[in-house]
Amino acid sequence: MDKPLIIMYERKMKKNRTESRPLRVNIANHWLTAKPFEVWGPRTLPDTELIFIHSGTFALELPRQTVQAGKGQLLVIFPGERHCFRNLEESGRISCIHCDLPETAASVVLRVRPVEDIDLIDGFRRCAEAFIRPAPWRKELLDAIMTEIWIRLQSYKPLTESVRPAGRAEEMAQYIRDHLDKPVTRNILAQKFHISPQHINYLFQTELGTTPTGLLHRERAKKAFLLIQNERISIKEAAHRTGFCDPYHFSKVFKKIYGFSPGRITRFFKPQ
To answer: What is the crossing angle of helices 138-155 and 212-231, to 10°?
Structure first.
């Protein structure tokens, strides 16, 4: 990262450190050459950094763990993490985006994942080009590109947790997934699985890290996303088919989970 950009970035972050603006690009760089065994840090970022590795091997050194990532992988550094980012070879190239993502990002985005989506990779290039070129509608263009990147990050299954813990909470979670179009409350789960409503909350928090309502909303939003993406149905129909009481409530829950409105799906994502 060039020094003028670092200075501009730090000044901007000091000014906006306490603000929360989902899907905002703070700085973007494409095809950076890392010096042999170069180290960034120790440092703590106020925003999320997405790093795509074009070549080489890199390590993210955190207080309690070290994570390695190599060619073709996406590495995520979350806000507030004290870390060093280290090049482990004599050469390496990366693209990076410093951005503000929804607060739910850390719960659904894996630290490291392989990326085969060519359009997602190209999003780093387009984002960097839009960032450095003064032009009319620059902010709107950056917002649109970042929205597309975030949609792709949210939508590809390898990015989300694929291994779920075994236990009573997982049994109830599967019941919720099988009945997304029907009302599912704690009392219904309590009667079905012979567990008190209070203990259900405890099991979900300890085994799955969420609540029954939180999981229900996330699974319904995921199903609605796929329906709108692949069948091009209306928001009203998607809300009805996934068990939401009305389109307004559906849109509110969807935006809270994904960080953007369901109306943007057809604009940025083609049917599969």
So the answer is: 110
* Contact predicate 36/89, CB 8 Å: yes
Q: Quick: pLDDT tens for 225-264.
A: 889 989 999 999 999 999 998 999 999 999 888 888 899 8
Grouping H, G, I as helix, E, B as strand and the rest as coil, residue 250 is helix
What's the CA gap between 149 and 97, in Å, rounded?
Answer: 10
What pLDDT shows up at residue 203?
86
The residues facing 83 across adjacent strands are 43
Element (H, E) at 93: strand 93-100
Which residues neighbour 193 within 8 Å (Cβ) at sequence distance 6 or greater?
A: 168, 171, 172, 175, 200
Domains of the chain: 3-159 (2.60.120.280), 168-268 (1.10.10.60)
In the chain, which ranges are continuous DSSP H helix? 3-16, 105-108, 118-132, 138-155, 168-178, 186-193, 197-203, 212-231, 235-241, 247-258, 265-268
CA distances to 82, 166, 191, 200, 257 from 207, rounded to whole Å, are: 27, 8, 20, 10, 20
Cβ atoms of 57 and 92 within 8 Å: the answer is yes
CA-closest candidate to residue 259, choices 174, 165, 146, 159: 146
Q: How far apart are CA 166 and CA 116, in angstroms?
A: 30
pLDDT tens track for 2-26: 544 544 555 555 444 444 456 899 9
Tell me, what's the pLDDT at 7?
A: 46
Contact between 21 and 98 under an 8 Å Cβ cutoff? The reply is no
Residue 240 burial by CB count (10 A; 0-12/13-18/19+): exposed, middle or buried? middle
Two tokens, residue 159: 């990015």
